[in-house]
């Protein structure tokens, strides 16, 4: 998208504003499916948690995507967006047994990542097909908060507990139809991913009636020019070959599944915020925007570095700024970042604002959540209205004194 178009959208819909480029989402979806075109049955289940706006879900559905969900509410959002039950997989962690049962009763594929839950579920519902999430204990992921495959992780059933797992399956007579892993986000090295995949193949050999193998996600996307990213084409070539060979060896048709969030939507997103104040101190020039970590928490939460441009003055001379929010705590988006000269009232654009941005937004400091716009066929469509005071009060109950 061009800076001019973004400025125009902020004028039309106000700021702060999230904008998503539908073409970029389509491009990434097609890139992934092309990379794995040699696999007969491929399933891409978009990870709803990354960006859960129903219009975005509808868009992904129109491309043929399925959904990866982690809560019953995400399942319901998917159904609301028109996804059929059989295109949704549910991969919870630490949720109640009742919720798992409820989702299974709907007819959604469930993925269990805990031995006690597996035993309980298998005893009560031996006929319901279940996928098992294993933890291959392979360290991947750019940050400890998003690395989930290591030995200390709470996710998945440890590969070292395979004998116990097999005993539960045998004793309950339950039907295991899929094996899953997700080692973490921001995978830099595809060899590590392929190594984890071998563990998944080895595990799969213990189960005779599998329909799919789910390799999770964690593909790294670039955050700035020349940044490293997962080489999806290379991964596609290598993993497809290995998968096809495994399928032959296994002797039964298998679907290869992925569940990308970031890869599909991160780069499609732009977060636009207006500069309220430029504050020169003795050591720093702060650009204070009309937003904060209530709307975009990733820099404070993960230390993620979103590229920031001044789209009101894109050709201006570059100066150093610390970009900060209005929350009454440390609220820093960037420290001493080179940005084209900023004046009060200018519009800043944060890149890679598609994944884990709006979906992690809150009302902290009693601020409204921003509006969301989908840029599609050359125009911006409002896909979520900006909140109002009524939204803040909704569900609150005043008392009589
Ligand atoms: C089980 C599972 N699958 C998929 C994803 C999506 O990962 P990413 O956004 O890195 O593609 C996550 C992210 O947390 C996850 O926990």
TrEMBL record:
Domain (Orn/DAP/Arg decarboxylase 2 C-terminal) ranges: 18-354
Organism of this sequence: Flavobacterium noncentrifugens
MF terms in GO: diaminopimelate decarboxylase activity; pyridoxal phosphate binding
Orn/DAP/Arg decarboxylase 2 N-terminal domain mapped to chain residues: 24-266
Active site per database record: 328
Stored Gene3D superfamilies: Alanine racemase, Lyase, Ornithine Decarboxylase, Chain A, domain 1
EC number, as in UniProt: 4.1.1.20
Protein name: Diaminopimelate decarboxylase
Binding site for substrate: 298, 302, 329, 356
Protein family (similarity comment): Belongs to the Orn/Lys/Arg decarboxylase class-II family. LysA subfamily.
Keywords of the record: Amino-acid biosynthesis, Decarboxylase, Lyase, Lysine biosynthesis, Pyridoxal phosphate
Secretion signal span: none
């Amino acid at each position: 998208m061009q800076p001019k178009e973004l400025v125009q959208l902020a004028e039309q819909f106000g700021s702060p504003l999230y904008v998503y480029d539908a073409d970029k989402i389509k491009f990434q979806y097609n890139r992934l499916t092309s990379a794995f075109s040699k696999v007969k049955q491929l399933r891409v289940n978009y990870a709803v948690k990354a960006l859960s706006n129903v219009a975005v879900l509808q868009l992904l559905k129109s491309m043929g995507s399925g959904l990866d969900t982690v809560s019953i509410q995400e399942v319901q959002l998917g159904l609301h967006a028109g996804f059929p039950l059989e295109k949704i997989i549910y991969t919870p962690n630490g949720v109640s047994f009742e919720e798992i049962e409820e989702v299974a009763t709907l007819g959604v594929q469930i993925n269990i990542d805990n031995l006690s839950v597996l035993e309980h579920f298998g005893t009560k519902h031996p006929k319901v097909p279940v996928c098992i999430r294993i933890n291959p204990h392979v360290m991947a992921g750019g940050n400890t908060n998003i690395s989930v495959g290591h030995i200390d992780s709470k996710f998945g059933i440890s590969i070292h507990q395979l004998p116990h797992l097999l005993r539960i399956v045998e004793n309950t007579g339950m039907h295991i139809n899929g094996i899953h892993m997700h080692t973490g986000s921001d995978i830099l090295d595809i060899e590590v991913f392929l190594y984890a995949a071998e563990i998944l193949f080895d595990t799969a050999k213990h189960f005779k009636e599998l329909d799919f193998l789910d390799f999770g996600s964690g593909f790294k996307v670039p955050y700035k020019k020349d940044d490293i990213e997962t080489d999806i084409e290379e991964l596609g070539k290598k993993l497809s070959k290995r998968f096809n060979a495994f399928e032959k060896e296994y002797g039964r048709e298998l679907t290869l599944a992925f569940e990308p969030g970031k890869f599909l939507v991160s780069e499609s997103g732009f977060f636009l915020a207006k500069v309220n104040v430029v504050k020169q101190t003795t050591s720093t020039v702060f650009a204070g925007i009309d937003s904060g970590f209530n709307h975009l928490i990733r820099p404070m939460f993960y230390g993620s570095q979103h590229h920031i441009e001044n789209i009101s003055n894109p050709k201006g001379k570059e100066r150093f700024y610390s970009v900060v929010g209005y929350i009454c705590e440390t609220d820093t988006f960037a420290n001493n970042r080179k940005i084209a000269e900023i004046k009060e009232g200018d519009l800043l654009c944060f890149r890679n604002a598609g994944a884990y941005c709006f979906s992690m937004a809150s009302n902290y400091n009693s601020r409204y959540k921003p509006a969301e716009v989908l840029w599609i066929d050359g125009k911006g469509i409002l896909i979520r209205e900006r909140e109002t005071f009524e939204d803040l009060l909704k569900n609150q109950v005043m008392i009589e004194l």
